[in-house]
Amino acid sequence: MPLFRPRPCGRRAPLLALALGLAALPGAVPAQDIVLKQPIACTLGETCYIQHYVDHGPGPELRDFGCGTASYQGHDGTDFALPTLAAMAAGVDVLAAAPGRVRAIRDGEADGAFAAGADVAGKDCGNGVLIEHGGGWQTQYCHLKQGSIAVKPGTKIAAGTRLGQVGMSGRAEFPHLHLALRHDGLDVDPFQPDPAAACDPAPRRTLWQDPPAYVGGGLLQAALSDAPPDFAAVKAGLTATDRLPADAPALVLWAYGYDSRKGDVVTLTITGPEGFTFTHEEVLERPQALFFRYAGKRAPAGGFAPGRYEATVTQSRDGAEIGRKEAFVILAAP
Q: Which numeric CATH code is attached to 32-188?
């Protein structure tokens, strides 16, 4: 078996094949479950989020374990993502999800090479670590930061051991850890390890010690500015300001989110002194792994009234709110 599969973020072994393989062994006793801890040192929903889950959909159909589409065709692992490049630069540790022995590592691949157009064929995982856990179980950690690998092959490690840091090496377009779990060489979804089970946002059986809540998209950041920011700057880690001059040419509310679906509704609202109100609602027309929306109001004659302006962004799906972010800015007289 190769150290790093040619397409660790691509086509996985079909779940149907795993189901048929088990059915062909009457009376077979399932192997003892592995128990996984969170493999990244961050707070889900605050400083990191899950961008993609394992794809359970047959053929071209997309379906994650929770009946949503937070995946892409053939995705064989779980992507724990950082919201910005600045967060990656600050350093976020990748941790061993379970005790085991390091089988192999790779380091030295540049971060951001694929996003810049480089050919990463054969090194899609980028910098990574492969761990054997016994009982046929393996975990693989991909896209780590160049030069951050902190373990050596043959080393016996405990759960929570630092393996390196989240990066953007290999076939990666955003900073994230791709965690792949395999049993006897076949890919397994730790959120829903039963291949024949129906999709369910709260499956009865998972392989997580503390199962992360299923979140099929949401908002990462919202802020007020005096002009629409560049999306590349937002993804890089644009720092929101809390003060603007009262003679600002406009007041713009922007929102940055992930895993939107067609039909999601994003509502942007601003309120301020002297009865100032502004509301913009937009129905998203297509799914996006990362999305960016903004709306605002030009300055009236004589400028905005000085004071505190508050903003709220909500994201709704099928009539239910799935994300909310709040922001404010002080407009100060010159």
A: 2.70.70.10
CATH number of 218-332: 2.60.40.2550
Alpha helices in the chain (DSSP H): 15-23, 85-90, 231-236
Give the 3-state DSSP-derived string for 17-77, with helices as H, strands as E and coil as C.
HHHHHHHCCCCCCCCCCCCECCCECCCECCCEEEEECCCCCCCCCCCCCCCCCCCCCCCCC
Question: Tens digit of pLDDT for each residue in 31-66?
Answer: 578 999 999 999 999 999 999 999 998 878 889 999
Q: Is the pTM of this model over 0.85?
A: yes
Q: Which of 80, 90, 91 is nearest to 38 (CA)?
A: 80
Cα dihedral 156, 48, 72, 136, rounded to 10, equals 20
Is the distance from CB of 140 to CB of 180 less than 8 angstroms? yes
* Annotated domain spans of the chain: 32-188, 218-332
Angle at 231 between CA 318 and CA 8, to 5 degrees: 75
